[in-house]
Each structure stands twice: as C-alpha cells, then as structure tokens.
Amino acid sequence: MQEAVTAAEDLPHSAVGGPWALDGPNNYGSYLFDFGSLTEKTVDSWIALAEELGVTQIDFPAAVRSASATSAPPRISIPTAWRA
Fold first, then answer.
1. pTM score, whole prediction
2. Cβ neighbour number for residue 78 with a 10 Å cutoff
C-alpha cells in the first residue's frame, strides 16, 4: 500500500498516517481525556500524572464539540495556552 500511495503523485499523504501508521513511534502513545478539569491551577498535576503513566497526549473532547472543531484546550480553562 505504501508503494501505491507513493506512486500516486497527486495524492496527498502523511508519512505517519495511512499505510505508514504502524511505522511511527508516536502512533503508539497513550492518552488521557480531560472533561473540563484541566485548568491553569491543575495543569502541573495533569503533567505529573501524564509523566507517571507514560501518557503522551491529553485529549480535549469538549473542544471537539466547539465551533472550531479542534482538539485545542478551551480558552476559558487555560487562557495562556493560546500564546504558545
């Protein structure tokens, strides 16, 4: 499949997704879900928990339901996140 996708010059593709998904070490990370309790006051404990568990991602499902449909932290919870 990698050869077929590579040969299709007009087909956009990602080197870490599709037929390459199993090759990327980042595709094997675990993640936590935040349902609204991750804030500037709690972020240090979230980071500590993620490091303790070996978690590489924190998912923000509430952000997915927002108008922008991204997985970015909600501005109201972490106002300074948007400065990074």
1. 0.51
2. 19
Per-residue pLDDT, 59:
85
Number of domains in the chain: 1
Q: Is the pLDDT of residue 70 over 70?
A: no
Return the percentage of the chain with pLDDT > 90, whole number: 18
Structural domain of residue 75, as residue ranges?
2-83
Residue with token string 């997704």? 17
SS3 readout for the chain: CHHHHHHCCCCCCCCCCHHHHHHCHHHHCEEEECCCCCCCCCHHHHHHHHHHHCEEEEECHHHHCCCCCCCCCCCCCCHHHHHC
